[in-house]
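Reading a protein record of the kind used here takes little practice once its layout is understood. The reader may check this reading against the record printed directly beneath this paragraph.
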Amino acid sequence: MKSIVELVLGLFVIAIGLANIKGNISTIHWYNRRRVAEEDAPKFGRVVGTGIVIMGVGLVISFFVMTFWIEHIADIIVLVMGIGGFLVALYGQFKYNKGIF
């Protein structure tokens, strides 16, 4: 059951990230996008969306690894992809929002 929830959550997170990449940044908290210039909004969406997609892909890969291979390796994949995606999104946050808040 845990792995199915992980798969569904991963697909949902990927969908949100793809929406951000396509320019819809309304799913990002208002305080994380309030200082983003109008002309930088598409770039901000691409960077943050890419980070979110990386996190979602990590969850989906983890589902398949957990289902067909070794469970503890799946946890490592989620951790590494989660941190990687977070750092990419944080980069976009600092670059286009000029800070976290």
